[in-house]
Fold these 4 entries.
Entry 1:
Amino acid sequence: MSKIKRRDFINGTLMVAGASMLPYGCSNPKILDTIDPLYYPPALTGLRGSHIGSNTHAHARSWEGKSDWGPTTDLKEEYDLIVVGGGLSGLSAAYFYRQKHGNDKKILILDNHDDFGGHAKRNEHHIDGVMRLGHGGSQTIQDPQIYEKPSQEMLANIGVDIEGFEEAYDMGFFNRHKLEPGTYFNKEAFGVDKLVKHPYCNYPNFMEGLPKASMSHEEAASQAPLSEIGREQLLRVLNGGVHLLDVPEEELEAYMDETPYYDYLKNTLGVNDPGVIRMARYSINDWGSGGTDMLNMTLARDGGALGFSPVGKSEMVLGSKYIHHFPDGNASMARLLVNNMVPGVSEAKNGAEIVLSKFKYEELDKSGKNVRVRLNSTVVNVQHGGDPKSSDEVFVTYINDDKSYKVKGNGVVMACYNMMIPHIVPSIPEEQAAALKLQVKVPLQYTTVGLKNWRALSETGVGFFMSPGNYHQSVLMDFPVSIGGYEFTNGPDDPCVLQMVSCPLGTEGAPLADQFREARHKMLVTQFKDIEEEVRGHLSGMLPDELFNFDRDVQSITANRWAHGYAHPGPGDSVKIGRKPFGRITIANSDSGGYPRADIAMAMAYRAVNELG
Ligand SMILES: Cc1cc2nc3c(=O)[nH]c(=O)nc-3n(C[C@H](O)[C@H](O)[C@H](O)COP(=O)(O)OP(=O)(O)OC[C@H]3O[C@@H](n4cnc5c(N)ncnc54)[C@H](O)[C@@H]3O)c2cc1C
């Protein structure tokens, strides 16, 4: 395919032209031993993440209170453990259960998506015969040293070589190719399309090896397409920082925790220009939950927001080098977990080999296997067979291909979005249900773009673009990691994957939960064709016409839409109250730890499994 043509996308999914060559695009594989060998979701492009249809039944349950799913087939399947949700937490729960009770235990993992991994999703782009990987969500093993011991042991057992990333991550890539951070000001928000080789903020610092901007602050401020006042303020911001605060050193930390970032921006740095405020609001993106208007100074500073000098030095707070990244992000961890538990899915023997290993989805749900992963299956009801205090059986009803099925477990770990649990487990105590409903999710979108070459980026000398006026507020070349025979792009003539990050925000200043709701709604009604147009306009405006032609240079787009993205804790003790065990039902997912990280997802799985006894 030389171009992305509108007609190739139906409901945001790339139509399969020749099933023998291209990935199978089935959204409803039949259950029980009958998944087509061509079923291969990672290579699907178009609207992915929470793909079309994935939330239909869950929304019918939670929004409309639907409980009549038609006749339910009792599959007469019995499991020691049923896990609801096949993300990193659910997969880890299955792993820990086996560690504790033995590999002969029967486990069923149910997930509503057509692929396992939850937010940890693999994106494959097949460009001119070359496969390039990207991550659809959960991207990096951040600070592996703080993973709890059982999780660290689990990672080692499944084949993750943490030290190996030191070699796999090409620290010299950006310097070698003379790629710096920059900012794209678009015409719609800033009156003119302009690229300046300066990030103005510290957000890009998480990209290890990306050099700091060579342009001076004075030059950067003068090149910004702002009013004269705006440029003056921007220069003040670039030269400013916490040293301007009249606060004793020993009180600084507490002061920053208590002071809203916007107060600092407005009162200390004297910013009121709408252009600079806009740059500030979008200067932290996915490192925060929501826009900077809702953050305190500490969180804003730690995420790399505008106004903490010196720009370019790492004022972002990272505990360790941000290099522990598989080419498909944390999807490799999900694959390794499945590989460890389900024989026959892959021949990989370690984390390096998993990257290029052929993954056989048809092996995921075979009768006779001790662990089965059942996709496209939305759990709509979980209830004990009798009194939760004494019952040792739990019935789980799920919908697959619009039909209702029932299975039985001796215990259930709910590793799904926690706010959904009261709808699925209607008998859960009232106080707990109320606490669970307070756990919210931050919407986020990672769009990966398969580029045939990156000459345009090379010529502009920018590898990481802040884009405060756009739907995607940053665009970056992916992490330069080569591992297990997989090679990161070699040079500008080679295909590569661009990562575009979109943090849809709600109305500035509104309470966070309202902002998330508003942004989630916007996200859910945005069609793939609109996203494609955004990407087209963004890249075409940002890159020089003589070097970039969207129809010629873009092979594929995968928009990983996470309407239910980061975990965001509810107030007070609600996280702890919400995750209490209820009879033979226990609660995991990163939501139950109140923090959007893989280590938390795993730690919560460990706890939930141990609570089952
Ligand atoms: C864009 C993005 C980037 C991220 N980057 C990082 C990162 O770099 N490092 C990091 O540590 N963390 C990152 N995170 C946080 C991420 O949430 C965790 O790393 C981890 O993937 C969470 O795993 P989980 O299993 O708790 O939840 P999820 O991944 O959300 O998995 C839960 C699964 O349960 C399914 N489910 C829900 N309801 C039902 C139902 N009724 N029936 C069946 N299945 C159901 C969901 O669809 C989902 O597949 C990122 C998150 C996002 C969204």
Note: The longest strand covers residues 554-568.
Entry 2:
Amino acid sequence: MRSDRKLLNAVLLGLTACLLLCGQENRLERGRTFLGLAPPPDPAAAARGEKIFVQNCAFCHGQDARGAEGPNLIRSATVLHDEKGETLGPVLRRGFPDKGMPAFSQLTDEQSYDIASFLHARVEAAANRYGYKLQNIVTGDANAGKTYFAANCQSCHSATGDLAHVGSKYEPADLQAKFLYPGDSAAPLTATVTLPTGENVTGVLKRIDDFQISITDETGAYRSWQTDAVKYVINDPLLGHQRLLAKYTDSDMHNILAYLVTLK
Ligand code: HEC
Ligand code: HEC
């Protein structure tokens, strides 16, 4: 998925033009693209997957997969990178026996596909917030937005620094897009891999899955490692926005915007 970033950026650039002109459906589509989601999940498979999930997984991951004893699966990289159970299946069959998740070694490919469809449907439901209306957008509570900003945005931004006057710089709808949608910076994702020798190699991320990470290094050479043999950090400048997206309520979004427009 990550390796398709260039293509994704091209698609997003095209869609940016349509942000304010096109309707709800395109916004949903953009949301899906931003979250890196595959085409909409198959509803019949998702319904079968829900049954398997409720019986086998909900105890630890919550009925809605938002996490309990086990982690939230709607924000899980394993789930987001998966399309049809091909990434999820092996992870489930292996489990995390040393960390409290049993191995589901009997799981068939069909069952993995069904569970994956259910989880993608849950992610989709979270992405549906893109459908929320842009009309009358400055209806939030600026004070609540200020509090939210201090808690969630200030680690990267400052109201008197980089975001000073942002309320004069952009129209409200554009301003909202700035924190809800990806930027149109076409810079590719990069990653820094730390080898067992301690050497760091930074380059453009080509591929990442549970087993392998590949980059092209500064000399343009393609290099690849087993993920369990190295440490790595993926440098996505907008990862902060992407993470927050899963957390906002509609009123959070309204409140943040109401606050940002006061930064004249
Ligand atoms: C007994 C508790 C338990 C059960 C049952 C369980 N899990 Fe887990 N699961 C965990 C724990 C704990 C982790 C975190 C492991 C770690 O820290 O790396 C986890 C991790 C995961 C991950 C990886 C999340 C990530 O970091 O990307 C996925 C995906 C997952 N579980 C899916 C499932 C599914 C689907 C089922 C049912 C078929 C299931 N789990 C059943 C406890 C459980
Ligand atoms: C982990 C870091 C991080 C967090 C957390 C974060 N942002 Fe950002 N934000 C960025 C980066 C990086 C950019 C610049 C993207 C670019 O230049 O393309 C940015 C850009 C923006 C911009 C556009 C600024 C401009 O002048 O064009 C706005 C507005 C914004 N963020 C608002 C927010 C708000 C509101 C929050 C909290 C709800 C938030 N951000 C949380 C990293 C973060």
Note: Residues 56-57, 59-61, 69-71, 73, 76-79, 88, 91-92, 96, 99-101, 104, 115 surround heme C (ligand 1) (CB under 6 Å).
Entry 3:
Amino acid sequence: MKRIRLSQRGPEFSRIVFGTWRVLDTGANAQEINRRLHACVELGMTTIDTAEIYGLYEVEQALGAALALSPGLRDKLEIVTKAGIYVPCPQRPGCRTAYYNATGPQLIRSLDESLRLLGTDRVELFLVHRPDWLTRADDTAAGLNELLREGKIRAAGVSNYSASQFELLSAQMEQPLATNQIEFHLLHPEPIHDGTLHQCEKLGVAPMAWSPLAGGRIFDPANPAAVRLAAAAESMADRYNGAKLEQLAYAWILAHPAHPLPVIGTNNLERLRAAAESDSIVLEREDWFALWEAAQGRKIP
Ligand SMILES: NC(=O)c1ccc[n+]([C@@H]2O[C@H](COP(=O)([O-])OP(=O)(O)OC[C@H]3O[C@@H](n4cnc5c(N)ncnc54)[C@H](OP(=O)(O)O)[C@@H]3O)[C@@H](O)[C@H]2O)c1
């Protein structure tokens, strides 16, 4: 698996990242999660994406338990976590309604708790999960800057920020933001046009692309875009060693000149291996556009 430096002073990550949002969906225990992490390391997919809210605040603890089973495993991985989204659930008694909080003190409290749950003393990347409409950028930056100075986070970044939100926060940072983790895939190509990918390219910041298979919707036979994509993928598979739709969907993201890193969500080991192979697929220009047209159901302008 190829590797990429997220930004000039940012960490080096695997080109494809293993996402853990759904890791508890199949009832996996610590042993099973430990097996998946080892499989990731064997495939060179050493970067693991998580967040405090995943599994309603239970995934980080499960990851910590899985890491504790193999001393040394943590040091083979780059860990990304995020903070700032709070929703009512049994793990957050007293929380009446969903809200965002990206104030400096909250980010510091959250990161400290994430480190405790993961059983580690630092993460390679810490992201503000969503822009908090009620918090000034200097307040958010103060928390991130303090965590950077203390060495608890190797780099700071954001997720789901618009280009202007990214620029506003960047101006307050002592170390440049290392990424913007955004929704970008065949069924959501908007970042190509809304300025977020242009900004990443201009700043030399590799974005992270979440839900690269649209959370599985690109396989939904009831979705006309998925049906068109399946046909398009079949028509070009021979040119790519029989590649499957999911592999072509990852390659479609990887081909963008801003160098996005797909953050994948499968719990299936065979699909994990197929994902790892897709970083060697270089889509021909015409096939990239053919996939765009199939997804959009229209010709390019
Ligand atoms: N920053 C953010 O706001 C944000 C938001 C959402 C997600 N994320 C990150 O992105 C990661 C990935 O998100 P995601 O899980 O939505 O990604 P995804 O890779 O787009 O979707 C994964 C889903 O697709 C299914 N799938 C994969 N291959 C399939 C196939 N060939 N046929 C049918 N279904 C298939 C998987 O099921 P199987 O497990 O059975 O393969 C799984 O349910 C998350 O884990 C998280 O780390 C970040």
Note: The radius of gyration is 19 Å.
Entry 4:
Amino acid sequence: MSHSESNIAIKVKNLVKRYNHILAVNDISFEVEEGTIFGFLGPNGAGKTTTISILCTLLSATSGNAYIAGYDCTKYPSEVRKSIGIVFQDSTLDKDLTAYENLVFHAYLYNVPKSEIKNRVESVLHFVNLYERKDELVKKYSGGMKRKLEVARGLIHKPQVLFLDEPTLGLDPQSRANLWDFITKLPKEHNVTIFMTTHYMDEAEVCDKIAIIDNGKIIASGSPEELKKIVGGDVVSITTKDNLYARKHIENLLKLEVLEKNNELYMTCNQGETCIPDLIRSLGDKVLSVKIQRPTLNDVFLKLTGKTIREDYAPESNSTKESIRAYRRKH
Ligand SMILES: Nc1ncnc2c1ncn2[C@@H]1O[C@H](COP(=O)(O)OP(=O)(O)OP(=O)(O)O)[C@@H](O)[C@H]1O
Ligand SMILES: [Mg+2]
């Protein structure tokens, strides 16, 4: 590893993964700096879990290279495994053991020195706020508690890189907010680099850098702010009595590009405030409602792919947004 790369925790170069005729990962390259949160975003089947599995040495690449903490994932799998913690989409906790027993078992598996096990287990239990419930069987835990315990488990051997594949999948908004509160503390408090995947665009706001993957290809990358610049203005959305008519009018008269999603028409205006009166003037009483907002990451995705990240995308709850805002205020 050259000196200039010493602060790169993850490096992926021209990575390809083919499952028979399916090209799941199609020549992707990226780097993740130490102590940062990297978000890998994309719709179902985009290639996120496949990429994570290669980085975690659970799957071999068809071609290309991946490095964790400077170690080649193919040549030094055991070094890579020592450097990483994993929280997967599907839970792998032993439900017939207590939380405490699960963690101790995992510590043994990862060769944590015996004299340190008790301390480490207790400290991660405190960190995720489960210390009081440590002696309950995991099968009695709620979904949110299980996820937290899995994150705690992923930290037991003090990994340099923590992989989180859809960490909040299936959680209610409050548990999601809660989980994010401590995930975002990890880089500072444990000096961990985080690689996470999510479908939820609002969750990705906490990332230092994001790569958007679609059909196995990275179609954009940058900080959330950089990505939002791709949208290039305010997003105005309207509902009308006659979308076909409205669409034609907006495209012809206002020279704006219109996208239709869930019966709403979306367009980007340099200045939403002046665009709205123009819209209403030209469409008259055909307009039913108008909304204006600063671009979100979901708008970026819509702009790049013509689809929302989840076709059933629904705006996220306020509690998640609040938690994310609180996080950003602190940084
Ligand atoms: N073991 C496998 N054998 C064959 N094809 C697979 C296998 N695993 C994944 N695929 C295919 O590879 C593509 C990428 O899948 P992957 O699981 O990486 O997507 P993903 O981005 O994690 O999706 P999701 O958001 O649904 O978790 C999909 O077309 C999927 O069907
Ligand atoms: Mg997946």
Note: Residues 114-127 form the longest helix (14 residues).
